[in-house]
Amino acid sequence: MTPQTVIFTTLLVASLLFFCWSVYRRFSLVFYGQPEERLDQPARRLSEMFLYAFAQLRVLRKPFGLNHFVIFWSFVILALANGEFLVNGVFPSVSLALLPEGVHRVLLLAFDVVSLLTLFAIAFSFIRRVVVKPPYLDSLYVKGRSPEAFLILSFIALLMLAYFGMHGALAALGVENDPAAMPISSLVGGWLAPHQSLIGTVYSVSWWLHALVLFAFICFLPHSKHMHILTAIPNCYFGALTWPATQPREKFEKGAVYGVGSVERFTWKDLFDSFSCTECGRCQAACPATNTGKALNPRQIVHAIKTNLLENSHALREGRSGTLPLIGDEGEGTNTEEAIWSCTTCGACIEACPVLIEQMPKIVKMRRHLVETESRFPEELLNLFENMEQRSNPWGIAPGERAKWVSTLPVKPFVAGETEYLLYVGCAGSFDSRAKQVTVALATVLNAAGVSWGILGKDEKCCGDSLRRLGNEYLFEKMALENVELFRERGVTKVITLCPHCLTTLKNDYRQYGLELEVVHQSELIAELVRSGRIKLDRKDDSMGRIAYHDPCYLGRHNDIFDAPRTLVQAATGTAVVEAERHGRNSFCCGAGGGRMWMEEFTGERVNHARVDELLAQKPDTICVACPYCMTMVEDGLKDKGAGQVRVRDVVEVLAEGLLRKNA
Amino acid sequence: MLVVVCVKQVPDTTQVQIDPVTNTLIREGVPFIVNPYDTHAVEQALRFKDRFGCRVAAISMGPPNAEATLRKALAQGVDRAVLLSDRTFGGADTLATSKVLAAAIEKLAQEEEVGVVICGKQTIDGDTAQVGPGIATRLNFSQLTLVDRVDELDLSGKKIRVSRKLEGRHEHVEAPLPVLLTVVRELNRPRYPTVAMRLESADAQVEVWDNKVLQLDVNTIGLKGSPTWVSRIFSPERAKGEMLGDGVHDPEGAAQLLIDKMLEKDLLAL
Asked: Which of A126, A202, A463, B117 is the most buried (most CB within 10 A)?
């Protein structure tokens, strides 16, 4: 054994031991989390993992993601080269040259090309961080130009340079096995060849540089945000198989703990999520709260969980709760209450995350703790909670007035067996003066199409959506149980909702209570009626002018309904809607989801102003929505912006107006 | 020291209608709520508990289903709940009501000295604001009505200093204990019960005291002991307004008409 082999082997073993110890110390913390089922359906999980981790579908949504794609695959391919390097360092007789020559040649070519590509990709990464740094790379505690980021980039660059140094030197010395398969190394060799005396030094320096950087990388990896190299792939495997539009039930019994008030109350997957975050900032770039200057940044929520877990790890290992609070004053590792209450639960963060981290559900879990255990929440919510509990609507209007909107129309009560659909009007459609017009329009269209429908009238109750998103699970459960019983009693099986929030609650949330309803949003049903010819629109109504469509989060992102409202507008007007810059899956919230409808907005720009500006950029005459909350927010936003000449219409109103014109 | 808070279950008046034939409140199907002012009274009692560690008892006179109101107080953190329920208590006016409540407070005082009694300033169904002062008079307690801030409760010096919210002014007053306060909404923000407290309160004991316990002369309580009775109840006639202008097609014209009308009626004068 040469001294070099001894030193190399010693350092390698030490690095690997340190690596394993670090990984064990970190990952064992994950087991302090609560149980959660994420191991079912392995085949589907593998396919998700392939799509998101290996094919990098989400990463590639941003153009610069291509750069990451290159680095990722280079890393995978070079893992083989680096593996060879490490084994060869200990056992100099073992190398990939033992493979069949053809295979070896292909590998050598791949290593050579990929190393060069990586060098370019790293150069682009440097340029991106130094010159054209996008704002979303910075969060409060992690900056785009952090030493850590540059250190990692430098490590990778040095590895590539050392690789070419080594193989260039070998080529120059004429001892490289197969220089023809290594065009770039041969090129470097050509540069070195005139300096014969230096070649030996270049080789040794490159070899040791390669070795030392590799060891440093191995040691540093588990302690940095680049731990994602280890966690991102499994995190995609453990990702949610269905879109997390709903929250899990809680068990209400004496002595139980509700929500998440300290880090170990999160599930193991929540904790694993925090180890998978690479601080890429895509969630914060998509978040309506972050975008409008609120205290919330979804990336910081995840970062806080990681920091809190690590800070409190000592206490957790001793079976205590940590001293660094999870919720409290501003500081790294702690989430402020203001941040927690700023979330609109729009889900843009979940949609943006390349490694399938679920940020929003963590926020709702912390809300549960605040409401149910601490009884601490923004003042405005007390009224909402009381109104919901006492009068089953957010405004506290007398339940007897629920069916007042029908005064002008012949509307029948829902009777099982005689009526096909229950029209679940919802609180806005029943009480809000503007939304009531939408209800009337919907009723008109349903009647025109000969749909058999009825209502529950004053027996209808609020679905409880806002309560659940606000973390008042206790009250939500009470209302959900009442509704489930009411629907069962009345024999309701098919439901039309006016509001996407009712839609998601009846469809996704009530399923947890064993109630399987066939729930359709009005836009879906009407689009189908138009398609099947039950609604005939011979003459197109162009009186709405240029129409921009705003995707409601709870219709689009949370329930995958993107086309129906667009088809409907197209059918009624003969022209397609114009799209805002952010639309469809990437639509930007109006600001009213997650119970924000009932709260004041004190900090930063108003979310609805930001959204309205974006919609106005398309120069619309009419803005179409498909949600009563969006209606309120967009109308208010337009008024504040002095753009009152732009009309706001629910998609069903566009159709109803078309029908009325036809009949006139 | 014991703090007693009086609460009442009232019909949700936003949902109450008057039967045009019988001129009485239609109570069928109308949900009951805790009298809103009383929730602030409960909160103040709990703040005394938090601060001084005193015990809090909530009492309510009403039918058996008024238990729900007391259970809510238990969920918020009161230590003891007593429902005063007996057929002979029924139909009481404010005089007879205050008599029963005062008797219950005296009975509680046999076990533990009562330093403070807190009531809402009035109930939203009767709106008399007489029961609190009636209790104070019967118990010979100091009475401070319309309290919107408690400045100091001095247990050793046996006195209390509060601010009273009057029309257009505030009054700072001090009174010796024992005292009865009636409170307004501005006093505080009632706490929202935690889930744990709700579950606790679901099993907690609500004591029910009937007249066998209080031993009051049946001629001085309930309907028999009530010198006032309601002869008629009706909704005031409201003159129907008129529609002016066309707000949809001519909003500016409509606004102008509205301003003219208000000027004409001298509603915009400073």
From this structure: B117
Q: So what's the pLDDT on residue B269? A: 64
Residue A211: Cβ-neighbour burial (10 angstroms; 0-12, 13-18, 19+) = buried
B195 and A252 within 8 Å at the Cβ level: the answer is: yes
Q: Which two tokens stand for residue B64?
A: 């058996």
**Topology of domain A3-30+62-237, CATH:** Fumarate Reductase Cytochrome B subunit (1.20.950)
B14: chain A residues, CB-CB within 8 Å: 391, 396-398
Tokens matching residue A534? 């039950």
Residues of B in contact with A377 (CB under 8 A): 192
Residues 251-280 of A with CB under 8 A from B: 252-254, 256, 258
Q: Is the dihedral of CA A629, A632, A635, A636 positive or negative?
A: negative
Structure tokens at A652: 């069903």
Residue A255 Cα, gap to closest chain B Cα (Å) = 7
pLDDT of residue B25: 67
For B195, which of A377, A398, A474 is closest by C-beta distance?
A: A474
Distances (CA, A) of A193 to A167, A176, A187, B66, B91: 12, 13, 10, 99, 113
Question: A611 vs A193, A563, A615, A616, CA distance in Å?
Answer: 62, 20, 6, 9
CATH architecture under which domain B2-220 falls:
3-Layer(aba) Sandwich (3.40)
| Model confidence pLDDT, tens digit, residues B220-238 | 999 899 998 777 777 777 7
Helix residue ranges per DSSP H, A398-521 = 426-431, 433-448, 465-469, 473-490, 500-504
Put simply, the answer to whether A372 touches B194 (Cβ < 8 Å) is yes
Structure tokens at B247: 């707000």
- On whether the CB atoms of residues B191 and A375 are closer than 8 A, the answer is yes
* Partner residue opposite A382 with nearest CB, options B14, B189, B198: B189
B192 pLDDT higher than 90: yes
What one-character-per-residue DSSP string does B191-244 give? PPPPHHHHHHHHHS-EEEE-HHHH---GGGSTTTT-S-------PPP-PPP---
Closest CB to B33: pick one of A258, A375, A390.
Answer: A390
CB contact under 8 Å between B189 and A377, yes or no, is no
Q: For residue A374, which amino acid is it?
A: E
| Chain B residues whose beta carbon lies within 8 Å of the beta carbon of residue A256 | 195
pLDDT value, residue B258: 87
User: Has residue B270 got a pLDDT over 60?
Assistant: no
**Total residue length of chain B:** 270
d(CA A164, CA A151): 20
Nearest CA in chain B to A386: B192
User: Which residue intervals of chain A bear CATH 1.20.950?
Assistant: 3-30+62-237
* CA A625, chain centre distance (Å): 23
Low-confidence ranges of chain A (pLDDT < 50): none
The CA distance from A392 to the nearest CA of chain B, in Å, is: 11
Q: Cα(B50)–Cα(B78) distance, rounded to whole angstroms?
A: 11
CB contact under 8 A, B12 and A390: yes
Give pLDDT, residue A1: 75
Residue of A nearest to B33 (CA): A390
Give tens-digit pLDDT for A35-49.
999 999 999 999 999
Instruction: Give the pLDDT of residue B264.
Output: 84
Percent of chain B scored above 70 by pLDDT? 95
User: According to the model, what pLDDT value does residue A225 have?
Assistant: 84
Q: Do A379 and B195 touch (CB under 8 A)?
A: no
Interface test with A, best of B43, B191, B192 (most A CBs within 10 A): B192
Q: Does domain A263-374 have CATH number 3.40.50.40?
A: no
Ranges of each domain in chain B: 2-220, 239-270
Give the helix/strand (H/E) hosting A529.
helix A522-531
